[in-house]
Amino acid sequence: MNIKEYLAEKKQVVEEALAAYMLVEKEPLIQHIKAMRYSLFAGGKRVRPILAIAAAEALQVSHPSLLPIACALECIHTYSLIHDDLPAMDNDDLRRGKPTSHMVFGEAEAILAGDGLLSLAFDLMAHPEVAVHLSPAENLRIIGLVARAIGPLGMVGGQSLDLAAEGRQISLDQLQFIHRCKTGALITASVQAGAIFAGADAPRFEALTTYGEKIGLAFQIVDDLLDVVGSTEELGKTAGADLNRQKATYPSFLGVEKTRELARDAVAAAVEALNDFDHRADPLRELAHYIYSRNR
Fold it and tell me: d(Cα 253, Cα 273) in Å, to the nearest integer?
């Protein structure tokens, strides 16, 4: 299969759904909604919603009722980027090749734009369209799973630990724990949400969870690599920012070549987790390879 064509096709589906679900700019909240829309529609690969869709397809389920959940995952991811870029956090002025939200709308409005997208995400996961396909218990399972993945034991906690580690010596085990929380948890939850939506049994849910964990690891490792070897133009954000902030990264522990090897191993483990799936899981397999080979 051609993974670039698959990603382009699914990205278009997600973009159209986001456009349908997202609030429109009108008074009295025009500035707040404009800030939300600015970051949500600033570009991006839409990897997390596509992972949810691909996981469901691997289990032979393709249904439009998954789209509110897929869009919720993208809203959460975008909120996290807005807040990560804030002066009190990573203090970045470029994201997806455009000025960051706080550079355009000010710090307070950027914070509120992120808050608005996070709240909208839970509204979408509870959308009436979802009930067309899922039982209340299944829907609650997805909502709870995503909430845990992005909360104090997941993404938010990982970001806190990441900030605390700046300029300090930490172990490789600590770095891996930070990245499992900060980056891997939402990626894994995206795959799991698609699996639950498609009615995965316990063995297949476990296999897809392993896949999500391994590509989450690969994604973060490649991010760390790109910060070292990529350019600002390629990345759409400031290259070398991790080094400037004295962040612990895989290249700082292992060097570039060993880091590449670790990323390859994570991708291989992700693909291996899908051994019991047929060709319908090929998009997931090719997505794993795409994550390793991406340049932004």
Answer: 27
**Cα(31)–Cα(14) distance, rounded to whole angstroms?**
24
> Residue 85: CB partners within 8 Å, gap ≥ 6?
91, 92, 93, 95, 100, 101, 102, 110
Q: What is the rounded distance in angstroms from the CA atom of residue 89 to the CA atom of residue 100?
A: 13
The domain containing residue 43 runs over which residues? Answer: 3-293
Give the count of alpha carbons within 13 A of 117, CB side only: 28
Per-residue pLDDT of the chain (296 residues; tens, 9 = 90+): 899 999 999 999 999 999 999 999 989 999 999 999 999 999 889 999 999 999 999 999 999 999 999 999 999 999 999 999 999 998 999 998 899 999 999 999 999 999 999 999 999 999 999 999 999 999 999 999 999 999 999 999 999 999 999 888 899 999 999 999 999 999 999 999 999 999 999 999 999 999 999 999 999 999 888 888 765 565 555 656 666 667 778 888 888 899 999 999 999 999 999 999 999 999 999 999 998 887 66
The answer, as to whether pTM is greater than 0.90, is yes
User: Reduced to 3 states, what is the DSSP secondary structure of residue 72?
Assistant: helix
133: domain CATH number is 1.10.600.10
Amino acid at 130: V
* Total tally of structural domains belonging to the chain: 1
Q: 170: which DSSP letter?
A: -
**Dist. CA 284–CA 208, nearest whole Å:** 10
User: Taken in order 277, 143, 290, 210, is the CA torsion positive or negative?
Assistant: negative
